[in-house]
């Protein structure tokens, strides 16, 4: 028994020496890696102030531009100020007003992009800009089109409204110099028999009317009234565009005051009330194809 115990003691001592030589069971004595450098950019996120612009970069006075913004953050998600950003066009062709910029206190840096007129008259030009800080990068893709002659606008609601009989709203264009000329207003949808502007006729149960310079109403005599489909157009417009414009017009839908709400065929206000946030507007220019 004593002899066996002595053997065990020798073996235990040998193992202790080996483990000590190996750094205590796996710890090789190497120092812990340093934490990541908080001044190094690890993410770049790109956004743009608009998705589409007029290709008139040759205009010496006021070419339309798209402003691209890069937000820079470190590994912890903290924005980095004073970080130099490099911008480069990686797809398409255009002109960057500046190719480098430093981030501000909010970690943001901006660049402006413009495009000369496009050779093919009805062709959009997609341009991708890449922003790089340290080894991180991000991209944004926008498009430019030639001067349009017309625009088609469709108006929808982003929620289901049942028994809708009257819907009144403003369709406002900006900037003011766009001066669009209304060509046509037409109802759209399964509940509508034919496009019409003005007083209803015997064979039409839904029609659209112009109540003012920018105010339109969609009426229906269907009982129950129209049931809208989410994001599906219920009325459409066609406009001529002023050929002297320097930037693409935008069309925004706003509702009338609360005393003229959306009405059901029973004469009751639609609940919950239709507000500006419920409208979805889609604009298609004739050169954006």
Biggest sheet: strand arrangement:
2-9-8-4-6
Number of DSSP strand runs: 18
Binned strand content: 35-45%
Could you give a short account of the major beta sheet? Answer: 5 strands, mixed
What is the structural class? mainly beta
Count of domain modules = 2
User: How widely separated are the two ends?
Assistant: 96 Å
Calculate Rg over CA atoms: 32 Å
Low-confidence stretches are 5-15, 190-202
User: How much is the average pLDDT?
Assistant: 84
Name of the level-1 CATH class of the largest domain: Mainly Beta
CATH architecture of the largest domain: Sandwich
State the CATH topology of the largest domain.
Immunoglobulin-like
What letter string, H or E per element, gives the SSE order? HHEEEEEEEEEEEEEEEEEE
Provide a count of the helices. Answer: 2
Helix content: under 10%
C-alpha geometry:
globular
Can you put this structure into words, describing what you see?
The chain is mainly β. It folds into two domains: 43-145, Immunoglobulin-like, CATH 2.60.40; 150-285, Sandwich (Immunoglobulin-like). It has two helices and 18 strands. It has helices at residues 2-21, 23-26, and strands spanning 43-48, 52-54, 66-73, 84-91, 95-96, 100-102, 108-114, 125-133, 136-145, 150-157, 164-174, 181-187, 206-210, 215-220, 235-240, 250-255, 263-264, 279-285. The strands form four sheets. It has a five-stranded mixed beta sheet with strand order 2-9-8-4-6, with no helix packed on it. Mean pLDDT is 84; it is low at 5-15 and 190-202.
């Amino acid at each position: 028994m004593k002899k066996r115990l002595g053997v065990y003691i020798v073996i235990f001592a040998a193992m202790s020496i080996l483990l000590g030589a190996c750094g205590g069971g796996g710890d090789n004595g190497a120092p812990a890696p340093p934490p990541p450098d908080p001044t190094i950019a690890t993410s770049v996120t790109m956004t743009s102030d608009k998705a589409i612009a007029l290709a008139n970069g040759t205009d010496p006075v006021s070419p339309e531009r798209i402003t691209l913004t890069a937000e820079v953050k470190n590994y912890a998600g903290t924005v980095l100020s004073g970080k130099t950003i490099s911008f480069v066009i990686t797809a398409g062709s255009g002109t960057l007003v500046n190719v480098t910029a430093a981030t501000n206190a909010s970690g943001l840096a901006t660049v402006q992009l413009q495009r000369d007129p496009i050779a093919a008259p009805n062709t959009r030009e997609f341009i991708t800009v890449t922003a790089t800080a340290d080894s991180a990068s991000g991209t944004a893709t926008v498009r430019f089109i030639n001067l349009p002659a017309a625009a088609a606008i469709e108006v929808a609601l982003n929620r289901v409204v049942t028994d809708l009989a009257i819907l009144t709203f403003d369709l406002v264009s900006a900037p003011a110099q766009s001066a669009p000329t209304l060509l046509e207003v037409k109802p759209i949808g399964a509940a509508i028999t034919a496009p019409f502007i003005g007083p209803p006729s015997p064979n039409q149960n839904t029609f659209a009317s112009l109540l003012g310079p920018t105010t339109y109403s969609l009426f229906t005599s269907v009982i129950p009234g129209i049931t809208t489909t989410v994001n599906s157009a219920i009325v459409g417009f066609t406009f001529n565009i002023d050929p002297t414009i320097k930037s693409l017009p935008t069309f925004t839908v706003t509702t009338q005051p609360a005393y003229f709400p959306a009405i059901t065929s029973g004469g009751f206000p639609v609940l919950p009330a239709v507000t500006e946030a419920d409208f979805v507007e889609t604009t298609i220019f004739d050169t954006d194809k």
